[in-house]
Specification:
The structure is a single chain. It contains two helices and five strands, in the order E-H-E-E-H-E-E. The chain has 108 residues and is α+β, with helices and mostly antiparallel strands. The protein folds into two domains: 2-75, Hypothetical protein rpa1041 (Alpha-Beta Plaits, 2-Layer Sandwich), CATH 3.30.70.1530; 76-108, no CATH class. Strand 4 and strand 5 form a beta hairpin.
Amino acid sequence: MKQVYAALNPTEAHLVAGLLEQEGIPSTVRGDALFTTVDGGGAVLGMRPTVWIGNPEQETAAKALIARYDRGEILAHPEDAPWICTDCGEHHDPPFTSCWRCGAERPH
């Protein structure tokens, strides 16, 4: 097992682990049950939850994905993004699969 990330809190650790899983990189969160705060402040040093991967050959890919997460880049899949109809130019929100104006299907 190889540690690839130390999160600020358990929620972030599970979010990062989920991002890795979506990309086919099996991961495990450790230490989320040990997470504590002192007087409502920051996490106690050494008690931050961590994300681990089992295959060291996936470390480069995992760290690249985590770097994108740390930079705040959008990690959504294309079907989760707004789109523009190629027939009439109408703008649509992600859930729509066809154009409300002309009926054309969402491009792939």
